[in-house]
Amino acid sequence: MLAFVATGEHDFLEAIFPLKRFGKTKMALRKDSSRRKEARRRLRRRRYNVFPRIRAYFLAGVLVTAPVAITLAAAWWLIELVDRNIVPMIPEHWNPDTYLRETIGLEIGLPGLGLLILFVAITLIGALTAGFLGRMVVSLGERILAQMPIIRSVYSAIKQILETVLKQQSNAFRQAVLIEYPRRGMWAVGFVTGTTEGEVQNLVREDVVNIFLPTTPNPTSGFLLFVPRKDLVTLNMSVEEAVKMVISGGIVTPPDRRSDAERAIPQVSSATYEDTDIQREKSPDRPPVNPSED
User: Fold this and answer.
1) What is the value of pTM for the model shown?
2) DSSP type of residue 287
């Protein structure tokens, strides 16, 4: 009996210890499996996070290289355009490519040669026309052009525009303004080109200003508006910043450099002139729209 008890107790203990060891192994396996699952999750997250990072890096590279590439491409296009039209006009014995071909044996084609020659030629013409003889030649040429019906209109318009834009003290495109266009409550960026004079100003009661309203994204086309000076809102941004804003369609917006106190107070509103418009519509002095209203 004692032997059976001892034997049974020994077997019982031997049976328990493996179970304990098996239980410890099972817990360790569970921990290992959870760690592996967590590692797999982290690896998946890293894989998923790689593509947004690559996309962000690619866009950052585009933002850095695209302006430089476009600028260089535009400059190269201009150089080739001028060289293609100016270089063939150079005599063969004055062309540097001739000496390079005879010396090296290769016709390289100096880039920018035509642009340099054009710059020198325009500068020399300006120097010659500044003298008395040059002014006489220019006045004679203008008198000849004035006798041509269509050419004289084109020439006079182009000359007046260039004189206005290129003179040193010109105020053309020197100020960006905000105007309500095409209706109340809608605002547009325009540029002051001068003070209205002549028949237009004499017909209008208010003091009006010439405003050029450019289109997006091509600012070389637009509309000429005669806006009352009191309806203009002067912008603190420079003309270059306003042009960038127009070309980009509002994507590039210059910062507001005014003080915090000025930013907190709105300057204009579409409801500012509502009472004035109503009074103008109801005014008995308003001219009739149709002759039948007389």
Assistant:
1) 0.53
2) P
From the list 147, 149, 170, the residue with the least C-alpha distance to 160 is 170
The alpha-helical segments, DSSP class H, found in the chain are: 2-86, 96-103, 113-129, 132-146, 149-166, 199-203, 239-247, 260-264, 274-282
* CB-based contacts of 178-185 (< 8 A; 24+ apart in sequence): 178/232, 178/233, 178/234, 178/235, 178/268, 179/211, 179/213, 179/225, 179/227, 179/231, 179/232, 179/233, 180/231, 180/270, 181/213, 181/225, 184/270, 184/273, 184/274, 184/277, 185/270
Q: How confident is the model at residue 283, as a pLDDT?
A: 58
pLDDT value of residue 274: 55
Q: How far apart are CA 37 and CA 35, in angstroms?
A: 5
The rounded average pLDDT for each run of 10 residues, N- to C-terminus, in the chain (294 residues) is 45 46 55 72 67 84 89 91 85 76 70 86 86 83 85 83 64 82 88 89 91 88 91 89 89 86 79 56 53 42
Find, among 194, 219, 187, the residue nearest to 208 by Cα. Answer: 194
CB 221 within 8 A of CB 214: yes
208 bridge partner residues: 228
SS3 state at 224: strand
Which residues, at least 6 apart from 141, have a Cβ–Cβ distance to it below 8 Å? none
CA-to-CA distance for 29 and 40, rounded, in angstroms?
16
Sheet holding 233-234, edge to edge: 222-228, 208-214, 187-195, 176-180, 233-234
Could you give the angle at the alpha carbon of 64 between the alpha carbons of 59 and 70, nearest 5°? 105
pLDDT at 86: 86
